[in-house]
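Table S2 (text version). Query chain:
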Amino acid sequence: MITEKKYITFTAAITIVLLFLFSYSSEAQEIKASAKLDNSSIQIGQQAKLLLSIQYRVDKAKQIKIQWPEITDTIRKEVEIAGQSKIDTVIPDKNDPYQFIQTKTLYVTSFDSGFWAIPPFKFIVNSDSKGVFTEPLLLAVHSIAVDTTLAIKDIKPPYEQSYSWLDWLKDNMYVVYGTLAAVLIVLITIYLVRYFQKVQPPLVVKEIPKIPAHIIALEKLEKLKAENLWQEGKLKQYHSALSEILREYIENRFKIQALEQTTDEILYGFRNAAIDDESMKKLKQVLILADLVKFAKEQPLPTENELSLTGANDFVNGTKREEASPAEKSDKKSPQVQ
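Corresponding structure-token output:
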């Protein structure tokens, strides 16, 4: 039979060999994985924290994808996992934002006394089957000492305790107060609703006449002109605002989803619209120049900037639809007296 001393010696030897075998693969990598026990010696049923971590560096030329080892409810049949935390990613050095550490805590326990070797955990990096390994660990689990000189005693019976409805009220006081408060709120709400239904007169909703789309667009174009954006070198902001004003006008006037479409899609949407060729030409010039400034860093001439604003005004004035006011509509409906 193997004595406990020989078993400890044998287990320690295996652990040293494993440490030697896996230390090379871990140290040779830029990516380092580690496993640490906060307490390598516990009693049966106690828990120890096993901290897993992997350190790596990310740069623009090389992306890192870490696949953690699959962790079940046991590491080996003698060592169980009572719980585990989520994976946490931190930057250890604020001066080096490309260095990362991922950590995860396992709560391990055992109900068998002995010295149990915890094998290395394997991390897969960028689908490389070789992987990166942590160092193996040794967990010592000791049995609880029992004084055999003492006599065995019977288990104490449970205490009997009376439980009345007053005790129930004390234990559920929040439930009672919550129920009373809910009933009181319902009663007050019913009373207030009935009271205001009797007192308040019916609400009269006054219809606010809708401002025509061309009025809104022309006012915004005039405001944009007064801001002098392109004169101050803010070309991208100027042409973006000009394009947005026209797109909003097109959406309100022609019901084309211009705010969500590209220039080509907007121009295609006008294929069935009844507008003149000159207006379409000016719209196309304004939108295409705005796209070149925003996306191709075009630097238009001062005359081109002014022509874009003029073209936008001409397009709105050339396609506007005059809407009669409520008073004018009523005058049209009433018969004329001769």
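Notes on Table S2: The longest strand covers residues 47-57. Residues 165-199 form one domain.
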